[in-house]
Amino acid sequence: MATTIKNKYIPTISPVTLEERLDNDGREIISYLRNVSVTFGKGIRAIQAVKGISFNIYEGEVLGLVGESGSGKSTTGNAIMGLVSRKEGQINILGRNLPKNINKLKGELNKFIVNKTQMIFQDPANSLNPHKNIYKVISEGLDNIDVKSAYMKIFDNKTLVNVLKIIKKEKYKIDYFNTFDKIKYNEYQNNKEYLKIKELLYVNPLGSIEPINKMVITYLKLRMEERNIFTLGKLGTKAIKRKLVIDILGSVGLSERILNRFPLEFSGGQQQRIGISRAVVLRPKLLVADEPISALDVSIQAQVINIFNDLKKNFNLSILLIAHDLRMVEYISDRIAVMYKGVVVEIGTTDEISKHPIHPYTKSLLAAVPSIDSHKKSLSDVQYDSTQHNYDEKTQPSWFKVGSTGKRFVLGTKKEIEKWAKEA
């Protein structure tokens, strides 16, 4: 248990193994890294950008990855996306291991990664093809998937979400839907899958559950009629693709009227919304957002962050949010990992990291955030000096669990962490 000295909270400290630190605690892991190292160059010119990092990204969470420029944040994101080769370690996405050499990322595995992971870049203007109109920019990725299957999966998921909202709103408790909500089903492959989900979600509840909310019955019948328009082939691939694009534009606050315009006709904030639409139209499970707001005006940064928040809730997205602006990271992230010179030095819940930082580098990052608080220490008081550690061949840092939640881990020696904890 934690102790209190003169009304000051002192968190508990205990050493942990790699397995304990990365225990998923029953949560579904979308992606994990194990001892990943990335090196650029060879021989005396070699630079190790990422040094043996390990962490999990869980379903439906936003993991903020923070650190100063050159800390290895973007390289980590690129490695997860299969954009850079790695020297050592394992990267796994939804049960599939990525090869260390990106030149071996081919065929079916490459298609799988493209469909399940997407990236949003720092500069939206440079990431959008200026010679293609908005419809072509957003719909380009849809050419590589079964559009009908993708749309039906999205349609059925939306039906389920809305039914659960009705039940909750009307204070009805129908165990069937609560059970169905936990069912994990993959992308539909053929008409048998359409019929299977149709039977489970649309047909069974109408006759097998009593009493049932009349609003639910009415809604399911309307949705089933709309669903039949697609399953019976009354709409072609082109029409379905256009509907997918229009729907995703609406989710980021843009109108279908922009479809025939070109990227350079828009402001930076609008371009980033278009970039987000392009990434999310494929409904990936993991989104890597690399400094998505740093190139935008302060006045619209919060708007873009709110879009990420909405997408996370509506599509159950897992997001790796790479940033150096801790204000925005605190606002949206469930957990935060802090990197310094290629090494993760602290990871934990947003509340723990932002309110009770332990590692001195984390404290220096928080001190760099502008504040009107007159009681806050000045930046000069908390500057980080890596030479304070005195690490050598005999004395090396290791991971410790700090606090009672079991979700915050700090890298250092036991003596260091005991000292830092008292100063937290």
Automatic annotation (TrEMBL):
<dbReference type="InterPro" id="IPR003439">
    <property type="entry name" value="ABC_transporter-like_ATP-bd"/>
</dbReference>
<dbReference type="GO" id="GO:0055085">
    <property type="term" value="P:transmembrane transport"/>
</dbReference>
<dbReference type="GO" id="GO:0005524">
    <property type="term" value="F:ATP binding"/>
</dbReference>
<keyword id="KW-0067">ATP-binding</keyword>
<dbReference type="InterPro" id="IPR050319">
    <property type="entry name" value="ABC_transp_ATP-bind"/>
</dbReference>
<comment type="similarity">
    <text>Belongs to the ABC transporter superfamily.</text>
</comment>
<dbReference type="Pfam" id="PF00005">
    <property type="entry name" value="ABC_tran"/>
</dbReference>
<dbReference type="InterPro" id="IPR017871">
    <property type="entry name" value="ABC_transporter-like_CS"/>
</dbReference>
<dbReference type="InterPro" id="IPR027417">
    <property type="entry name" value="P-loop_NTPase"/>
</dbReference>
<protein>
    <submittedName>
        <fullName>ABC transporter ATP-binding protein</fullName>
    </submittedName>
</protein>
<feature type="domain" description="ABC transporter">
    <location>
        <begin position="33"/>
        <end position="366"/>
    </location>
</feature>
<dbReference type="InterPro" id="IPR013563">
    <property type="entry name" value="Oligopep_ABC_C"/>
</dbReference>
<dbReference type="GO" id="GO:0016887">
    <property type="term" value="F:ATP hydrolysis activity"/>
</dbReference>
<dbReference type="Pfam" id="PF08352">
    <property type="entry name" value="oligo_HPY"/>
</dbReference>
<dbReference type="GO" id="GO:0015833">
    <property type="term" value="P:peptide transport"/>
</dbReference>
<dbReference type="InterPro" id="IPR003593">
    <property type="entry name" value="AAA+_ATPase"/>
</dbReference>
<keyword id="KW-0813">Transport</keyword>
<keyword id="KW-0547">Nucleotide-binding</keyword>
